[in-house]
Every structure is written in C-alpha cells, then in structure tokens.
Design brief:
This protein is mainly beta. Helices cover 10% and strands 28% of the residues. The chain is built from 1 helix and 6 strands. It has one helix at residues 30-41; strands at residues 2-4, 11-16, 48-51, 66-70, 95-102, 108-114. The strands form 2 sheets. A 4-stranded antiparallel β-sheet has the order 1-2-4-3, with helices on one face. The chain has a two-stranded antiparallel sheet with strand order 5-6. A hairpin with a 5-residue loop joins strand 5 and strand 6 (108-114).
Length: 119
C-alpha cells in the first residue's frame, strides 16, 4: 500500500506500508526489508530514496511504514539531482555492509547499517 504524505519533505514523498493489512508495529523484520528493497528496485531513478525511522527516531505513528521520495538534494555519491544543496548528513555517514539486492536492471540496492552516526 502506498499513501501520499500529507506533510511531504521532498518531491513525491509517500509512505510505503509493506504489510498494511497485518497492522504491524513500527519494527523492522526481514520480510519488511525485502518488500522495501523490491519497492526501491521498482524505480529506475538513482534519486529514489526509501528510508525507515523507528519510534525512537521520531516516527510519529506506530505502524510499519517506510518513507519514500525522489531526492532533490545533491548526493555525495555523485548522483544527479535537482539542487546544489548539500546531501542529507546520513547519506555521507559511515556504514557497515549488511546485504545487496540486484533487480532485473541496475541499480543494485545496498542495505547498510549506520556506524557511530551523530547528526
């Protein structure tokens, strides 16, 4: 299920609810991550972002959902975007590799865990 965000913070900001009918709390599990990766791979744009924030990271509603949007900030990884503004701080943070998924076409989606991130 995909819903429009009533308070978008970038172009095309939507909420992706991978298991809406199950009324799951805002807690990640492998199945939800897999569905989010498939959602990411459905876009051909390098600017498409999918993110997750748990209740401890200011999620305002306790139901399983991801944020998704087309970024208009310039990435530190050299992807083209619609602005010369600095990338989100989290995009330049140190991470540790968790897994990669390859779709039917590039790009590869890389799942990474933040490592000692402070904003």
């Amino acid at each position: 299920l995909v819903l429009l965000n009533v308070t978008p913070y970038d172009v095309g900001h939507v909420l992706f609810l991978p298991r809406a009918a199950e009324h799951r709390p805002q807690v990640l599990d492998e199945r939800a991550i897999h569905k989010a990766v498939l959602f990411q791979l459905a876009s051909s744009s390098a600017r498409f972002r999918v993110g997750f924030n748990g209740l401890g990271a200011h999620a305002t509603i306790n139901h399983l959902h991801f944020q998704a949007w087309y970024s208009t900030v310039a990435s530190r990884r050299g992807e083209e975007a619609g602005s010369t503004a600095a990338a989100f701080a989290v995009e330049g943070a140190r991470t540790r590799h968790v897994a990669d998924w390859r779709g039917p076409r590039p790009p590869v989606v890389s799942l990474r865990r933040l490592h000692r991130f402070t904003s």
